[in-house]
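Most newcomers find our protein records easier to grasp once they have seen one. Read left to right, the backbone structure tokens trace the chain's path through space. Nothing more is needed to start thinking about how sequence determines fold. An example says more than a description, so a record of this kind follows:
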Amino acid sequence: MVYPEIYPNVKGLIFDLDGTLADSIPTHIYCWHQACNSFGYKFKEEMLEEMTGMPTRTFAEYIKRDSGCNLSVEDIMTLKQDQFYRLAHTIKPFKKMFDFVISNHGKIPMSIGTGGSKRSASLILQAIGLREYFNIVVTSDDVIKHKPEPDTFLKCAELMNVAPGFCQVFEDGKPGMDAARAGGMMVTDVRVFY
């Protein structure tokens, strides 16, 4: 079995949350379908491939443009988020990544860099049993530019007091991997550990 490894010279670990530590993508997909069905739009699951890691607002803006509906972006976001907040407690961790975090806790600085909101991140970390393991959680509420821009991960590095070049980012989405590389960080694609 393959487990994650820390690269040589790494002094800080940064984890994406959805699809990296938490098996939450199926829940997000379900909630988007439910939200979009309520105003007669069919959610396009292929959006996730190119937009994974981006904030809910980015998805909602795309859906508003594509659907031509009369709802505001905020209304679309609320429809989806209400569903998600109701179901977040059912989300499970990815076992290998969960074990990896536990085994490195207290040994090396670690942080979360997510495109999700502060509330969403808090609910997910609670559900997967990792809330107490991360003092640093950077969300879409904490930066102006989101993945694939490097700002989320650069903020994590700053708060960990680790230079970006010594950070290793664990990601499942292309925008997040691009963000890490743009920030001069090492990247691990966690999909091989599922």
User: Anything to note?
Assistant: The domain at 12-24+91-193 is CATH 3.40.50.1000 (Rossmann fold). Residues 33 and 43 are 5 Å apart (CA to CA). The mean pLDDT is 96. Strands lie at 12-15, 110-113, 137-138, 167-171, 186-189.
